[in-house]
Structures are given as C-alpha cells and as structure tokens.
Design goal:
This protein has 584 residues and is an alpha+beta fold. The protein folds into four domains: 79 residues, Roll (Ubiquitin-like (UB roll)); 81 residues, membrane protein fhac (Ubiquitin-like (UB roll)), CATH 3.10.20.310; 72 residues, membrane protein fhac (Ubiquitin-like (UB roll), Roll); 304 residues, membrane protein fhac: a member of the omp85/tpsb transporter family (Porin). The strands form four sheets. A 16-stranded antiparallel β-sheet has the order 10-11-12-13-14-15-16-17-18-19-20-21-22-23-24-25, with no helix packed on it. The longest helix is centred in the first third of the chain and has 25 residues.
Length: 584
C-alpha cells in the first residue's frame, strides 16, 4: 500500500527544505571572522595598537555604517596607542575592502623615530629623601636619559615612588609635581616627579584577640613595639609568623585608622582558633622493616602559654617505637623551644635485638633561619643482644645536634639539601655504665640537570672513641646496609663480625651514594644508582651495590622500587628494595 503527500503537505515540506538551506548557507556568514591586517610594527607595538583599536574587535555581522565609522576613526586610536610607547611621528596608510561574506582592513604603519627622555627630574623631599629603604627601591628600574619614552613605565615608576613612601610609613606623602612634557619636533621629553614625603608615622597600640594565647607570647611574634617607625614589612612578617605558628585557624592583621595628630598607626590582629587536636594514621612498607603502621596525636595549643603535646606509635616487624613529647616556647616562639620526652623502642634484626627506654630534655634554637641547633640530655636504659654479646646499659648521654634542610616542597624536589651533624657522649663519672664520645654526620644533595633529570648524592659518616665496643649497646654501634644505606644488602647486615660470623657493629661508619633519575612519563621516573659503605673498627672493608629503580611521585609522597646487585663476593645476585618517604 502506498501513500502520497497532498499538495499542501508537499508545499510545507518544500518550505522547510528552503528554510534549512538558507540557514545552512548563512551559518558560515554568522561565524565568519573579520580580519584587520597590520604591518610595519614590532610585536609590542602591534599588541598595543590592537588593544586600543575598536576596529580590531568588530565582527563580520557588524553593520556596514558602523565598520566605516570605526575605520575612519582608526587613525586617532592608532596614534594614541603608539604615543603611549613613545612614537609621536607615526604615519599610516589604510584600505577597507568588502568581500562576499565579510570585510577586510589593511593598515600599513611607519612608527617613525621614538621620543627619548632628555631631562629627568626625580626628587623626594622630606625625611624619606634620606631613607635608605626608599632610595633603594627607587634605584630599581629608574628612568635614564636616552630611554625611549613609555608612558606606562612612567606611571608604574610614579606609583612605585609613592608606594615606597607609604610602605615606610610616610602616609602624608603627596606629589608636588608629576608630569611628562613632550617636544615632538625635537623628539625629546622632560620627566618631572617631585614627592613631598611628610613626616613618618609610628606604630600605635597593637591589639590581639584575647583568650587564645597570652599577650606576652603573641607579642613575641611581632618585631614591633608601639612607638617603632612604621614599616609594612613588619606587618606582613607578623601576619606570616602567626599563620605559620599552627596555633590559629585564621589570622587577619589590619592597620589603621591613622591618627594624624600623634602620627601613629594602630594594629588590630584578629585571631580565630583552629582545631588544635589532630589524629593521624598511616600504613607503609619497606623491605628493611616489612609492613608498617603509624598512629599519631597532636595538640598544637595545649594552654595559653603555647605548649604543645604530641605522641607517636610506629610498629613494624623489625622496629617498633612509642614516644610522647611536651614542648613549650622560650622567649621567641619562632626561634626557641624546650622539649621533654619519653619513649620506648624495640628493634629485632638479624644482627641484634634491643629494648631501649629513653627520657630526655632538649632545647631547639633556630639559627638565622637555616640551621636548627639542639643541645640535649638523655637518660637511656637498654637491654641488648649483639652477636654473642648481651647485657644492659644505663647511659646519661649529653650531646648537641645541628641540622639544616632546604628545598623541601610538595611534589618532586628539583633542588635541595639536608645536612646533620651530631656530637654526643657519656661518662662513668656522671653515672653512666661506660664512657664514650661519638661524632655523626649525614648529608644529602639534590640538583636538577634539566627539567626531567636529577642527581641525588648521599653520604654518612660516624666515629666512636671507645676502647672496648662490647660495652656499648646496639643503639650506639654503627651498622650498614639496607634501603637507605647500601642497597643490594639486607638491613644492618654489614659490619664487623664475631667468631660465630654474626654482625656485631662497628665503631666507625662511611657511606656514600650517587643516583640519577629521569622522568619518563607523568609522575613516573627511572633511576640508576651506585652505593658503597662500611661499618668498621680499624680498617674499612667497603661493600658496594649498583642497580636500576622505578620512582612514582604518589599523592602521599615518593615511592621507590629498586633492583640492586652487589659488587663484592656476596652470594646474593639480586635484591629488591621497596621504600616510601621524602627525598630529604
């Protein structure tokens, strides 16, 4: 059975076809782009001309009369754009053509010779004229005779001049004269900037939100006192120090209002307490220790004196540790802390077993922002078995540690270093079971060769002054080998051995490692490495390993998988190492 459209139906279908055809034909016209072709200018000049030229943004569908008007007015816009860059003698020719679906403007420009600064008069009157900080800022990118006149540069320098005065507390600063006079025939310009700074303001009262920390402690975060000359840098440093302290959820530092009579600026610090108590959990794995579990508790604001408490639990097949510390700020909370702590550690390796109890006190000081100095005193009781030696020791260990870390950052570290030096010892005369003196040093350096390639160098050294090593517990002896020591060897499997062939540790340590890694895709990298080291008493016997590795920059930090081969006479042909944790 067949059907046919009636005449009205056929007519209706025909109309639809015509309408759709016209719409399809007009679609390219609506989407067509107009073209403004500019020649004769460099990149910066053309960019400025296009930014100030309305014709450059007109579309094909814009009315013909509108395009003609924009084309006619283009001359003034072009001259204004070039004059802003110092070109006052430009000449141009232009042409407007109409095409089937759009229009096209062609503009040829000859910028001519630029106007140059001939006479420059920049002066700061008042106390700011002798302020080294203001003068130092003004010396940066200061306009010089012979420079091409650039009005945006002039305006930026003018604003910098006034801002430099405001940042140092000259809040009444104002310009006596600020202008640029252009002599077009001689292509020269005179720049005049004369600022009267007025008198400098001082800090007024500093108000903190009460009830969170003691005012005496909060005041230590500020390098300012009421009556000190105003400096915006000190305000910024106060805000940063309070934010970085970990005590607060938010920090807002507001200056003002100004008091013109006393020339003082009050500071209001609004502090919002954050959640001071946090709990942390974590799991991990390494071939040195096997599966790992970590638990932590932190109280960042124990009381109004700024004391903090933290406890840590680390458990694995080889090493387990439980610790608790209580610390409080001394004098400047940014630079000095006292810490008391207690802990228990159990370690069971193929070479030794030990249970260690510690009770200690330390003082941490920040030296010049790069080094931490920590003198400490620890009472250590340890039950140990090392080879055929077993026993217990009670040591009152005093020491001092210096540590510096730079370059720690989120993600892949491109450049950084870690240095640590430690001197510690015990004396029978002070109640210890034995006497010894020990020096330890560790270092690691990371440098990028290019955007994808890094070199990582690591070293460790140690020396113990003690006649008989058998009297020292396992925690004071040196061992080598493992994921972060000499790869290709088991954890703490390298060192002097007793008559039964058991590793008993040494009085000295030397380790070195060099590694190169390269990103191959995304967060993945491959690595090649060489490790060597020795724990010894008299003469070192180095064991070395080399191999290849795979690196993954995971959301929780670097994860490493290494395949290492020993280079000595070891029976091991290949050892796999898996580890997690920061590069520094």
């Amino acid at each position: 059975m067949s059907h046919s459209l009636s005449r009205p139906g056929r007519l209706d279908a025909l109309v639809r076809i015509v309408v759709f055809s016209i719409a399809a034909a007009l679609l390219p016209l609506r989407n067509a782009s107009a073209m403004v072709v500019i020649s004769g200018l460099d990149e910066a000049q053309e960019a400025n001309v296009r930014a100030l030229l309305p014709l450059a943004t007109a579309a094909c569908k814009t009315g013909r009369w509108r395009i003609q008007r924009l084309f006619r007015d283009a001359d003034s816009h072009i001259h204004r754009a070039l004059q802003a860059l110092g070109f006052y003698s430009a000449s141009l020719s232009k042409q407007l053509t109409w095409e089937e679906t759009c229009w096209r403007a062609t503009i040829a420009i000859e910028p001519g010779e630029p106007v140059r600064l001939d006479d420059i008069d920049i002066a700061v009157e008042g106390p700011a004229g002798e302020d080294p900080a203001v003068l130092a800022k003004l010396a940066i990118n200061k306009p010089q005779a012979g420079d091409i006149l650039n009005h945006s540069h002039y305006e930026a320098y003018r604003d910098k001049l006034r801002n430099a005065a405001l940042e140092r507390g000259y809040f009444d600063a104002h310009f006596l004269q600020h202008q640029v006079l252009v002599d077009v025939p001689t292509r020269s310009a005179r720049m005049t900037l004369r600022l009267d700074s007025g008198l400098r303001y001082h800090f007024g009262e500093i108000t903190f939100t009460p009830g969170i920390l003691r005012r005496e402690l909060l005041q230590q975060f500020a390098d300012i006192e009421p009556g000190d000359p105003y400096d915006a840098r000190n305000v910024a440093m106060l805000s940063a120090a309070l934010s970085d302290s970990g005590y607060f959820g938010s920090v807002e530092v507001v200056t003002g209002p100004l008091d013109p009579e006393t020339r003082t600026v009050p500071i209001t610090v609004t502090l919002t307490p954050g959640n001071s108590r946090t709990y942390t959990t974590g799991i991990g794995f390494s071939t040195d220790t096997g599966p790992q579990v970590r638990l932590g508790y932190d109280d960042r604001r124990r009381n109004e004196r700024g004391a903090q408490f933290e406890s840590r639990l680390f458990a694995s097949e080889v090493t387990s540790e439980l610790s608790a510390t209580y610390r409080w700020p001394h004098r400047d909370p940014r630079k000095e802390w006292f810490t008391v702590g207690a802990g228990f550690q159990q370690e069971n390796t193929d070479s030794s077993d030990s249970d260690t109890y510690k009770l200690g006190i330390s003082r941490t000081r920040n030296l010049s922002g790069k080094w931490l100095e920590k003198p400490y005193l620890e009472l250590v009781y340890e039950d140990f078995t090392v080879g055929s030696d077993d026993g217990h020791s009670r040591l009152l260990i005093g020491g001092i540690n210096w540590e510096s870390v730079t370059g720690r950052e989120l993600g892949r570290i491109k450049r950084g270093r870690m240095l640590s030096f430690d001197i510690r010892g015990a004396a029978e005369q002070l109640g210890s079971d034995t006497s010894f003196l020990q020096l330890r040093a560790r270092g690691k350096w990371i440098r990028s060769i290019d955007a994808k390639t890094r070199i990582l160098v690591r070293t460790a050294m140690g020396a113990t002054i003690k006649e008989s090593l058998s009297e020292l517990p396992a925690s004071v002896r040196f061992f080598s080998g493992g994921d972060r020591s000499v790869r290709a060897y088991e954890f703490e499997s390298l060192g002097p051995r007793d008559s039964f062939g058991d590793v008993i540790g040494g009085s000295h340590l030397i380790e070195a490692s060099i590694e190169i890694d390269r990103v191959v895709r995304g967060n993945w990298a491959i690595a090649a490495f060489f490790d060597t080291g020795s724990a010894f008493n008299a003469d070192p016997e180095f064991s070395s390993g080399t191999g290849l590795g795979l690196r993954w920059q995971s959301p929780i930090g670097p994860i490493r998988l290494d395949f290492a081969t020993p280079l000595d006479d070891s029976d091991t042909q290949l050892r796999v190492h898996f580890s997690m944790g920061p590069d520094l």
